């Protein structure tokens, strides 16, 4: 009887099948004659300057390193195009203020809106209003509660983060009866629930489970407080997954204060300080899982294409996808150089 494939192997196989299918499709549509597929605009056509488009951007207050990188990335992306006029609403965690900002964009008649909502459900109605006014909305990171609220949605892979973290820990610990701990973010958030679910699924695939779990609040102070409790309650741990590198500063402070180093730790998101520690290889932090801070920058790039009636040049389908989920790769000392330029400052 064949040995069941692990979750990680099944992920890899599905990706491989997709690549093969694309190759076969390309082979069927090329060959001796002209292609039967209209591939839309090419990469060269997309890069060429077009009619100026006005893009409104609104996101939460940058009270977290990752959110700061989201905002700066959006600005940098807009500045890289000479045909984009970016109008930025002041960052806010006040739902009413963000709704007002979107309504201002609608009244101004912008060509597209890139929106990272402070609360996806609460911003859904005004996003639908923009769409009904003929303004395409690009929804970033936190999803709206209706498919009619966005032309395109760009997401990080929260479930995939958990799978990546669990798969890495499984590979490091093997099939041992290990003690695995988890330091989550805010348990009330769907993103935290998705990360935990992916982590549990991956651990289960190799016969492990979470032995101890605490939840912080994505802050340095919160990370330090709950980690102190976790370490006091568990005299021995083999591996820890901390969901967020910003709160990881506090997590590592608590670990240092306790003088504990019998375990290794995996972080989450991909901060610069985390990657520097991984590269130095002189702490318990051995890896982090990317949660891309480029989502709003990607949103600006796609908003420009949509507003100019262009397509994604490398895709066969002559359109811009309506849903994009970005990868959640594992960063270790062996590949940190590939990712460090995209790291954000905590």
Rg on CA atoms, Å? 22 Å
Which CATH class of the largest domain applies here?
Alpha Beta
Strand order of the largest sheet: 2-1-3-4-5-11
**What does the largest sheet look like?**
6 strands, parallel
Gross CATH architecture of the largest domain: 3-Layer(aba) Sandwich
| Overall number of strands | 12
Order of helices and strands: HHEHEHEHEEHEHEHEHEHEHEEH
InterPro entries: Peripla_BP_I, SBP_2_dom
Signal peptide: 1-26
Keywords: Signal
Domain Periplasmic binding protein: 55-310
What would you say this structure looks like, in words?
Residues 55-310 form the Periplasmic binding protein domain. This is Sugar ABC transporter substrate-binding protein. Belongs to the bacterial solute-binding protein 2 family. The structure is a single chain. By secondary structure, the chain is of the alpha/beta class. The chain folds into two domains: 43-156 and 294-315, 3-Layer(aba) Sandwich (Rossmann fold); 158-291 and 331-342, Rossmann fold, CATH 3.40.50.2300. The protein has twelve helices and twelve strands. It has helices spanning 7-29, 43-47, 65-79, 95-108, 120-132, 158-173, 190-205, 220-233, 245-258, 272-280, 295-307, 336-339, and strands at 53-58, 84-88, 112-115, 137-140, 152-155, 180-184, 210-215, 239-242, 264-269, 285-290, 323-325, 330-331. The protein has a six-stranded parallel beta sheet, with helices on both faces. Strands 7-6-8-9-10-12 form a six-stranded mixed beta sheet, sandwiched between helices. Helix 7 (190-205) links the parallel strand 6 and strand 7 (210-215). Helix 8 (220-233) packs across helix 9. The longest helix has 23 residues, at 7-29. The protein is elongated and about 60 Å long. Mean pLDDT is 90; it is low at 1-6 and 9-33.
């Amino acid at each position: 009887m064949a040995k069941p494939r692990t979750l990680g192997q099944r992920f890899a196989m599905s990706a491989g099948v997709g690549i093969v299918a694309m190759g076969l499709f390309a082979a069927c549509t090329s060959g001796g004659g002209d292609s039967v597929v209209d591939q839309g605009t090419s990469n060269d056509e997309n890069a060429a300057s077009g009619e100026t488009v006005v893009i409104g951007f609104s996101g939460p207050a940058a009270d977290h390193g990752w959110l700061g990188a989201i905002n700066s990335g959006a600005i940098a992306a807009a500045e890289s195009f000479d045909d984009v006029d970016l109008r930025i609403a002041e960052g806010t965690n006040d739902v009413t203020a963000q709704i007002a900002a979107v309504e201002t964009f609608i009244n101004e008649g912008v060509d597209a809106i890139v929106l990272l909502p402070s609360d996806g459900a609460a911003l859904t109605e005004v996003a639908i209003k923009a769409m009904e006014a003929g303004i395409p909305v690009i929804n970033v990171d936190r999803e709206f509660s209706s498919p009619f609220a966005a032309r395109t949605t760009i997401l990080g892979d929260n479930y995939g983060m958990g799978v990546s973290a669990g798969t890495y820990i499984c590979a490091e610990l093997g099939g041992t009866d290990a003690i695995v701990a988890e330091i989550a973010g805010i348990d009330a958030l769907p993103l935290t629930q998705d990360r935990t679910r992916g982590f549990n699924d991956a651990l289960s695939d190799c016969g492990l489970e979470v032995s101890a779990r605490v939840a912080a609040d994505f802050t340095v102070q919160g990370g330090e407080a709950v980690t102190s409790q976790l370490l006091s309650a568990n005299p021995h741990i083999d591996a820890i997954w901390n969901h967020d590198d910003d709160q990881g500063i506090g997590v590592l402070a608590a670990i240092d204060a306790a003088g504990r180093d019998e375990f290794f730790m995996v972080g989450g998101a991909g901060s610069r300080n985390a990657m520097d520690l991984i590269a130095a290889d002189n702490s318990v932090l051995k890896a982090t899982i990317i949660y891309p801070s480029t989502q709003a920058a990607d949103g600006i790039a796609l908003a420009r294409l949509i507003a100019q009636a262009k397509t994604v040049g490398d895709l066969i389908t002559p359109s811009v996808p309506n849903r994009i989920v970005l990868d959640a790769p594992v960063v270790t000392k062996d590949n940190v150089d590939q990712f460090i330029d995209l790291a954000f400052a905590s």
